[in-house]
Amino acid sequence: MTNKSGQKNGLANAECHTVSWARETLSQILATSAKSFLLLCVGMLIGFPTVLIPVLMRNKDGDLHFSGEEASWYGSLTYIFQPAGSLLSGAMLQSFGCKKLMMLINIPQFGCWLMLYYASSNISLYISSAMVGFVIGLMEAPTIRYIGEISHPSLRGVLTTYSSMYTTIGFLVVYFLGSLTDWRHVALYSSLAPIICVLALSQVPETPMWLMSKGRSEEALHSLQWLRGWTTAEMVKDEFVKLEFYSSKKPRETLHSYEKEVDTRDEKCPSNTNGSLENGCANGVARNVNCKSSSYLDVRGKRGLAEKWHDLTRKEMVIPLCKCIVLHCISLFSGLLPLRPFLVKIFSEMELPIQANWSSVLVSLLGILGNIGCMLLINRVGKKRLAITSFGAVSLCFVFLALHLRGYSPNLGGNYDDHWWPLSLFLSLFFFYNLALQPIPWIYLSELLPYKGRGVATGIVASLFYMGIFFGVKSYPTLLENIGLDGIFYVYAAVSIGGIFYTWLVLPSTEGKFLCEIETETTQVTHNGKKVDI
Questions:
Q1: How far apart (Å, rounded) are the C-alpha atoms in residues 35 and 28?
Q2: N or C terminus of the chain with fewer C-beta within 10 Å?
Q3: What is the enclosing helix (H) or strand (E) of 452?
């Protein structure tokens, strides 16, 4: 690697000093918080139909009114157009980078809120819903990839959970505003969020891995120094060498096609480095890593569709991609997401002891507590155990809710009001869903997918996920008519039970591992009792 003099002197002569754990953690929390504000904005957009739909369904004599069918279309249109945004996001990500793309996304997001505020017909509401879907799709790939690439392995699970909590906070904010004022002013006040988001993102660095992939090694080093506690180059040299090795795993290319496929059989993520950082880059990687260096060239030019298609269809990508798709589908049909646009109506019909709008605020608060619980437990318990526990608890909540609708409620004696029982179940449901089923699929998505093709693959998973939400939301009125709300709850309980077995048997443990280590383990299979590469 060719170093500029300033970088070289910094690498060779930097004094070794210890960066405190608090300082290193703080820098990553700040970067994650800036990125997560975009998720807060998205949570507000997704939660807005919960505020709007019950108001317009009651407004039978007004200019704006929803029938049951129109409400289901409004609640689900977002998820039809999300795949277009996801696929475009994956294609744009490698060109713009995570930071710049996340900042640009706030422009159409601001437009969505203004369109909602000035809406004068159902058509304008439908158009705004479609725009929301496109915006959500655009943000999926950069937000997921950003957190995976900036965080240290010891903090990755905690920071991803912390980030996902902002979506729940977005729900809480919009539900709270909906309890205080009318829906138009909710949209107006919410339009401030994208402006704040842009200001926050402008203060944090781009991911070192993306900068490295563009040949901007010096900027990548400065970014890594910022993210590890504003430290010196010498302090991050080991991680920087691993980063350079990981980002340099590019197959040899001719002008028109691959000359040779990637051969990962002899690759090992470097565990240590010797000497100064300048010797650990480029040529140093070849000395410290046991790999077939002849299989690689550092190609940073534009790549054609054939190469991108190859990235998506190679075994190293297909296996973890399928695992992520199945996990997201199970998480989706474990219940809460298809129900969200109709929550206020469901709460009203079940005669909860608290007014329906405030019940939605309360369950969102429990969701935030679930996210906090995940942050505290994920490194101690592990993702698999946490997910299995949550799947089990969610299935029990749905079973008891279904039994309550059929007239079976626990007899607790005394002056107990049985209307508190379903509220307690909904509170538990939101807590356990946010404890694991909401954040963990996205954590795995940021960890399991190989670097080459990760942006597009993330867009594919997000697209399928939101198409599933569309199917769930759009089919809700039909299912309600045919099998009733209790039948819907039984279906979600069955899916959650399936999630227990899938998590136990299929998903890997990734705690404390670098991305290159996870990629190597994920693309191995067991043969005659031994792990071998595919």
A1: 11
A2: C
A3: none
Q: Quick one: tokens of 269?
A: 């993520």
Question: Whose structure tokens read 């054939």?
Answer: 306
66, 206, 504 from 143: Cα distances, Å = 34, 12, 27
Per residue in 21-33, pLDDT tens?
889 899 999 999 9
For residue 45, give the nearest of 141, 163, 132, 156 by alpha carbon. 132
**Distance between CA 476 and CA 74 in Å, rounded?**
13
Q: Contact 75/473 with Cβ under 8 angstroms? A: yes
Q: How many other CB atoms are found less than 10 A from the CB of residue 406?
A: 10
CA 196 to mean position of chain CA atoms: 21
Give which of 420, 27, 377 is closest to 235, Cα–Cα.
27
Distance CA 4, CA 380 (A): 43
pLDDT band of residue 502 (cuts 50, 70, 90) is very high
Strand partners, 526: 531
Q: Strand 530-533 vs strand 524-527: parallel, antiparallel, or unpaired?
A: antiparallel
Q: How many helices (H) and strands (E) does the chain have?
A: 22, 2
At 260, is the secondary structure helix, strand, or coil? coil
CA distance 366 to 169: 11
Phi, psi at residue 296, to the nearest 5°?
Answer: -125, 145
How far is 257 from 255, CA to CA, in rounded Å?
Answer: 6
Gap between the Cα atoms of 459 and 29, Å rounded: 25
- pTM, full prediction: 0.70
User: Mapped to the 3 state alphabet, what secondary structure does 376-393 carry?
Assistant: HHHHHHCHHHHHHHHHHH
Dist CA 85 CA 82 (whole Å) = 5
CB atoms within 10 A of CB 298: 12
What pLDDT digit, counting tens, does each position of 329-338 carry?
A: 999 888 788 8
Q: How many residues does the chain have?
A: 534
Per 3-state DSSP, the chain is made up of helix, strand and coil in percentages (nearest 5) of: 75, 0, 25
